[in-house]
Amino acid sequence: MNKDLENKIEKVLTRGVAKIIKKDNLKKKLESGKILRIKHGVDPTTPDLHLGYAVVYRKLKQLQDLGHKIVFLIGDFTGRFGDPTDKEESREMRSKDEVKKLAKNYIGQLGKILDIDKVEIRYNGEWYDKMSAEKLLRLMSKFTVRRMLERDMFQERDKKGLEIGLHETVYPILQGYDSVVLESDITVIGSDQEFNELQGRKIQKIEKQKPQDLIIMPLITGTDGKEKMSQSLGNYIGITEEPNSMFGKIMSIPDNLIINYFELCTDIPMDEIKETKEGMDNEKINPRDAKIKLAEEIVKIYHGEEKARKAKEYFISTFSEKKIPDDVPKQVVEWTDALDSYQNIVGFIVSAGLAKSKSDARRKVEQGGVSIDGEKTVWSRILTKEDDGKVKKIGKKDFVRIVFKD
Amino acid sequence: MNKDLENKIEKVLTRGVAKIIKKDNLKKKLESGKILRIKHGVDPTTPDLHLGYAVVYRKLKQLQDLGHKIVFLIGDFTGRFGDPTDKEESREMRSKDEVKKLAKNYIGQLGKILDIDKVEIRYNGEWYDKMSAEKLLRLMSKFTVRRMLERDMFQERDKKGLEIGLHETVYPILQGYDSVVLESDITVIGSDQEFNELQGRKIQKIEKQKPQDLIIMPLITGTDGKEKMSQSLGNYIGITEEPNSMFGKIMSIPDNLIINYFELCTDIPMDEIKETKEGMDNEKINPRDAKIKLAEEIVKIYHGEEKARKAKEYFISTFSEKKIPDDVPKQVVEWTDALDSYQNIVGFIVSAGLAKSKSDARRKVEQGGVSIDGEKTVWSRILTKEDDGKVKKIGKKDFVRIVFKD
After folding, report:
1. In degrees to the nearest 10, what's the CA dihedral of A332, A338, A341, A347?
2. Rounded to an integer, what distance in angstroms lies between the CA atom of residue A201 and that of residue A177?
3. A144 vs chain B: nearest CA distance in angstroms?
């Protein structure tokens, strides 16, 4: 085995990895020269893929670059069952068309990280739509209630007195059975999926397959520095976000996340990251400069070198020179083309929660207290896509970055 | 409504009944004149139907006599899944032929109580063999783990640290869904089935059916006076047992069960039972006489008047006159034609645990200490079917009744 391949395998096995099950086994598989099948499954939702997802997908990319087959599984069957909040009513089911649409959006974004033409895309309705109740019961009979309820998610819900739908106990089994059908050699997952994919190992053994190995990636912390990055918490950096917005958001993360982001979200060699860490530790490197480098690196991955450079220049000229604080995104307002009524500057101020009413907002504009990227504006100003990423100042201390959501 | 019908309905609603859900509703149904569908389900096993089963079947018979449709459900699908003791191994499945054979045996015995030609016999494989995994998951999604684990059987197992197979949590749902398919108006069950059939009410409501009412019958105590009557505990009186054996076993029950057996296992009017109770309470009736009447009544139900009379005569001449204690069945040895080696009297004595070895048994016989129904026997004596129900005396105090098991 040549040195380059050896290094690449080493990178797969170590960089950013939270845990591997079973490491020796996985190493042998990777060194065998065999083309491996790498499963990764998602339920069809409407995500803005963000850097948290990318941590996993970039690991998949490393494996794809080694010539392995990425099998991207869309849970169009499993995605049909929601949380049984209202027990007496049957819940809505997504239509197949809807799922395909959701999948298309998903795959479109995924193409920013993986070579999508080489990915095998599958839907688990392919086997579950044909599965009999009997087969399902036979699978279930291999598992005990106690084992299923050990899952941390269930434990937490139980502690809170929340209900667990009986069908929900079957999810880990279905997710595990996916590995059987897809003949998964390896699966790459976020750490919240460990329990489910371990069931996959068990079912594969029952079905006389070699069990998949698990590469478990950590869940990264969001821009707030507190919670894990998530769409619903609004503390995320989307991989399709515009360069200026992406750059600005990265600049807003707390300093203690810089090294973590370098390791998980960039390709900067580990030696260099180590140097940066040491430089910051002994105060030879200003964390702000390290962050600018981090932001430029990440924007480069999703938008290319040219746009990354421009985003950096824009950030420096706007924020550094005009003394706008870096942490503006804390007041970001999501924005869509569809919300016509807010495209006017006055509506936007109200939607951002910076004025009580449209008349209050108009008054503020007329008093000359509202500026966009340092320039005073008038109340008839209409916001356009060109304003994306700009920072609006209202009064003395309220800033808000304008973000268009695609 | 005529008085006779009114009385019959009253009998259905009260005699021997442990609990009714919902009584008012059930009464209205019975008075409506509509032909009702009465579900009763069993899993295919190899039972000797005994008086414990008969408590339920005799209630079904009362309903059949009122013109209602008894729907006898054989769980050929549900019966395929056993207790998941060995979690890694797939368990044996009964073949359809085997199930049909078991069912035939079951139905044959049932014919001793119900007018079997009028019974609608169904197998739940009819719908579950066609059911999809998705439909099953949708049914499951109506229930929570917590609710299912409330079932007393599960609670007990959990306390003992025993495992519950995940598929077992689905049984109550399947049993409930049977009621939907069969459009059950009423189900008659033993008290251990209450939880499962209550799920049936719930699913019927979800499926926009009127929920079935439950007639819940008590589990009767076996001949040992301690445990509930059960085949595995050997404390049962089979409804196909030979008259002499049946009579003798009934004579062996403790006195405190006499009234309970009268109510649950005979058609003696309640007034008369009350009189017997009072008679025993104030010592005007000898419990042994009450028991002889009970035994004759029960044997009459399963074998007719003539055989019941003969069994009574046999009992009195053998036991009363020869001073053989009534409670001989405590040492009953089960006996089959297949066990050739025990058909010799010597082998039988060993199998009954009354001698340490065949030579010990032979010595006892040669010493003249072994008698059958009061007559001394020789060691070369071969037991035949004609000995069924006879009592063998060994030494001064060891009695054993010879029972052939068919």
Report:
1. 10
2. 9
3. 4
Answer whether B22 touches A (CB < 8 Å): no
Task: Give the predicted TM-score (pTM) of the model.
Answer: 0.74
Taking the C-alpha atoms of residue B163 and residue A231, their distance in angstroms, rounded to an integer, is: 39
Q: How far is B321 from B315, CA to CA, in rounded Å? A: 9
Nearest to B142 among A87, A141, A173 (CB): A87
Query: Which helix (H) or strand (E) covers residue A39, if one does?
Result: strand A37-42
- Beta carbons of A252 and A300 less than 8 angstroms apart: no
DSSP label at residue A210? P
Q: What is the SS3 assignment for B17?
A: coil
CB proximity list for A12: less than 8 A, separation 6 or greater: A30, A59, A62, A63, A66, A215
What's the pLDDT tens digit per position in A208-231?
A: 999 999 999 999 999 989 999 988
Q: Are B258 and B290 in contact (CB under 8 A)?
A: yes
Give the other-Cβ count within 10 Å of A318's Cβ.
Answer: 18
- Provide the residue type at A30 as one letter: L
The residue length of chain B stands at 406
**Residue B173 belongs to what H/E stretch?**
helix B171-181
Give how far Cα A162 sits from Cα of A136, A169, A368, B126, Å: 26, 14, 51, 37
What residues pair up with A214 in beta bridges, in sequence order? A21, A187
Cα B374 to Cα A34, A65, B226, B322, B348: the distances in Å are 84, 93, 30, 7, 17
CA–CA separation, B386 and B404 (whole Å): 10
Dump strand ranges (E) for B97-236. 120-123, 186-190, 213-217
Q: How far apart are CA B163 and CA A143, in angstroms?
A: 10
Provide the pairing of β-strand A186-190 with A120-123: unpaired
C-alpha distance from A118 to closest chain B C-alpha (Å): 31
Cβ distance B142 to A84 less than 8 Å, yes or no, reads yes
Whole-angstrom distance, CA of residue A193 vs CA of residue A230: 15
Cβ contact A365:A346 at 8 Å: yes
Please write the tens of the pLDDT for every residue from A246-282. 998 999 899 999 999 999 999 999 999 999 999 999 9
Contacts of B91 in chain A (CB under 8 A): 141
- What is residue A73's three-state secondary structure? strand
Instruction: Say whether residue B81 is in contact with chain A using an 8 A CB cutoff.
Output: yes
pLDDT at residue A103, rounded to an integer: 83
Please spell the DSSP secondary structure of A131-149, one letter per residue: -BHHHHHHHHTTSBHHHHH
CA distance B76 to B97: 10
Which of B308-346 are b and which e, b meaning 16 or more Cβ less than 10 Å from the residue's Cβ?
Answer: beebbebbeebbeeeebebebbebbbebeeeeeebbbbb
- Write out chain B residues lying below 8 Å of A166, CB-based: 140-141, 143-145, 148, 169-170, 173
Roughly how many angstroms between the first and final C-alpha of chain B, as a whole number? Answer: 46
Q: What is the dihedral of CA A73, A76, A77, A83, to 10 degrees?
A: 110
Q: What's the token pair of residue B393?
A: 């005396």
Q: What is the ipTM of this complex?
A: 0.74
| Residue B388 near residue B243, CB atoms below 8 Å | no
